[in-house]
Specification:
Order of helices and strands: HHEEEEEEEEHEEEEEEEHE
Radius of gyration: 17 Å
Structural class: alpha+beta
Number of strands: 16
Oligomer: single chain
Number of domains: 2
Helix content: 10-25%
Largest sheet: 8 strands, antiparallel
Number of helices: 4
């Protein structure tokens, strides 16, 4: 299961700005989780600093050839949408939240890139736990996951680590309740922003995860594989982090 917006959810969010409401008769699990998100974090309510030449990121389709700066997510960063991307190709969601942010392609069930600034972790049985002191070691030693050898990566000039993981269903006889009907591994939580949407690695999907520390904060990126992932990587490659407290 992906935690991105589908086209129906994207359009229904825009309806709050005057567009027509589009509601799916049988919403996907992704949509139910997104529409049940809690209220905006009070820390993200004030209008943040917007560097010259950038547009403040909101829950909307992203314009080709436009530079954006994040609103609520910490650490804040800027990024650019390539000028040759199709209109309505990327949709940003959860932009006011501090600990999670998604940019997805609605036509591909929201595949793209999701960013997490986690506040808690889980043990190997899916119970809440403290964040691991070394997230790379935790992922690569989880017996429920196939994990690639870690390799170095850079995002916005910050050194990090890339790990590609997939679930081993036979090692998850009793999936955590948050997994619903699929076998999954709970990785990190983003409470209090989104208690119903932790970072989950689901059966049948490959997860390319980038892990880095920015301004003292642990940051994790889930970049979707395939052609959509290649387009999402262009967004990641354009990112520049703002100084702390910006």
């Amino acid at each position: 299961m992906r935690t991105f917006l589908t086209a129906a959810v994207a359009l229904s969010l825009l309806a709050g700005c005057g567009g027509a409401s589009v509601v799916s008769a049988t919403p996907s699990q992704s949509e139910r989780l997104l529409t049940s998100s809690p209220a905006i974090s009070p820390t993200a309510a004030a209008t943040p600093f917007v560097p010259s030449g950038t547009t403040l990121l909101r829950n909307t389709f992203l314009r080709p050839g436009t530079a954006y700066v994040t609103a609520g997510f910490l650490p804040r960063f800027t990024f650019s949408v390539p000028p040759d991307v199709a209109t309505n190709f990327w949709f940003a969601s959860s932009t006011a939240l501090t600990h999670t942010l998604s940019i997805g392609n609605p036509a591909s069930e929201g595949a793209g890139v999701t960013m997490y600034q986690p506040t808690g972790g889980y043990d190997y049985s899916g119970q809440p736990a403290a964040l691991p002191t070394n997230m790379v070691v935790w992922l690569t030693h989880d017996p429920q996951l196939h994990a690639s050898a870690p390799k170095p990566v850079r995002v916005g000039g910050i050194a990090g680590t890339e790990v590609v993981v997939a679930v081993i269903p036979a090692e998850i006889p009793n999936p955590p309740s948050l997994c619903h009907t699929s076998a999954c591994v709970l990785v990190v939580s983003t409470n209090p922003d989104a208690p119903l949407r932790p970072f989950q690695i689901f059966e049948g999907e490959t997860f390319r995860i980038l892990i880095l520390k920015v301004n003292g904060l642990l940051v994790m990126f889930w970049v979707f594989p395939g052609l959509i992932g290649a387009e999402a990587q262009k967004l990641v490659d354009s990112m520049e982090f703002l100084p702390a407290n910006s």
